[in-house]
C-alpha cells in the first residue's frame, strides 16, 4: 500500500515538474533579486527567506522592503497589502471547483496560490492515471520552493559578493511590464490592461505619483465591479 502511494506521488511530481520549469527561471532570478535587496537593506538571508516562506507574496514582498526601512505606518501597510493582493480573492473563487474535495491538501494549495501557479493550475489537467490532488499539490510545491530557494540564494550571495545593487529593484517593475505585455497579446484580457492604464493615469493626474498606488487600485477595482457584466 505504501509503495503504491509512493509511486503515485512520483507520477504526480513527474507530471507537474515540466510545467513549472518556466516559473523556475523567473522565480530564481526574482527571488535572488529580492534576497539581495533585503540583504543590502540590513535584513540577512534568514529574514528574507523567512519572509518568502511565510508571506509568499512576491510583489508585496518587494513593496515591503520600503515599508520595513521607512517610518512605521501600519494602516498604510495594511491597505497596500490588501490592494496588491486583492486579485487572489478572484483567483480563489475561480479555483473552488478544481480544489474541491482534495482534503487536507487544499490548505497548502490555498496558501501557495500565486499568479504563476494559478496560470498553470487553471489550465493544466493531470495526465490519465495521475491523482488530481497530488498533481496540483506538486505544481504549487515546486513553485513555492523555487521562490523560497531563490530568495535564500540571493540572501547568501548578497552577503558574500560585493556588487552594486543600483537598479536591481527595477526587477519588480520589469515583472509587471512583462505581465502587462502578456495581457496586451491576449485579446481576451486586453480590456483589463486598458482599464488599468486609464484609471492609473487619471489618478496620477489627480493626486500625483507619490500618492497614487492605493487610490488607483481602488478605482480599478470599482470600475471592474461596476462593469463586470458587460466586460
TrEMBL record:
Taxonomic superkingdom: Bacteria
KW Transmembrane helix (keyword) present: yes
Membrane-spanning intervals of the chain: 12-37, 44-69, 75-94, 144-163, 170-188, 194-227
Keywords linked to the UniProt accession: Cell membrane, Membrane, Transmembrane, Transmembrane helix, Transport
Keyword Transport: yes
Main subcellular location: membrane
Membrane topology summary: Multi-pass membrane protein
Signal peptide segment: none
Protein name per UniProt: AzlC family ABC transporter permease
Family membership: Belongs to the AzlC family.
PANTHER family linked: INNER MEMBRANE PROTEIN YGAZ
Amino acid at each position: 500500500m505504501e509503495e503504491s502511494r509512493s509511486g503515485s506521488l512520483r507520477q504526480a511530481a513527474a507530471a507537474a515538474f515540466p510545467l513549472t520549469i518556466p516559473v523556475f527561471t523567473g522565480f530564481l532570478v526574482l527571488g535572488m533579486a529580492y534576497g539581495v535587496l533585503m540583504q543590502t537593506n540590513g535584513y540577512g538571508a534568514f529574514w528574507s527567506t523567512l519572509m518568502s516562506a511565510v508571506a509568499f507574496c512576491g510583489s508585496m514582498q518587494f513593496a515591503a522592503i520600503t515599508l520595513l526601512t521607512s517610518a512605521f505606518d501600519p494602516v498604510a501597510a495594511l491597505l497596500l497589502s490588501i490592494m496588491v493582493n486583492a486579485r487572489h480573492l478572484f483567483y480563489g473563487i475561480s479555483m473552488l471547483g478544481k480544489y474541491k474535495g482534495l482534503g487536507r491538501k487544499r490548505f497548502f494549495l490555498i496558501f501557495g496560490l500565486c499568479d504563476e501557479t494559478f496560470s498553470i493550475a487553471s489550465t493544466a489537467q493531470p495526465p490519465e492515471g495521475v491523482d488530481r490532488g497530488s498533481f496540483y499539490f506538486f505544481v504549487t510545491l515546486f513553485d513555492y520552493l523555487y521562490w523560497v530557494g531563490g530568495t535564500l540564494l540571493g540572501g547568501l550571495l548578497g552577503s558574500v559578493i560585493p556588487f552594486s545593487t543600483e537598479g536591481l529593484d527595477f526587477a519588480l517593475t520589469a515583472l509587471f511590464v512583462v505581465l502587462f505585455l502578456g495581457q496586451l497579446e491576449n485579446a481576451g484580457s486586453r480590456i483589463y490592461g486598458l482599464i488599468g492604464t486609464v484609471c492609473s493615469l487619471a489618478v496620477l493626474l489627480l493626486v500625483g505619483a507619490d500618492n497614487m498606488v492605493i487610490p488607483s487600485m481602488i478605482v480599478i477595482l470599482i470600475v471592474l465591479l461596476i462593469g463586470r457584466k458587460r466586460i
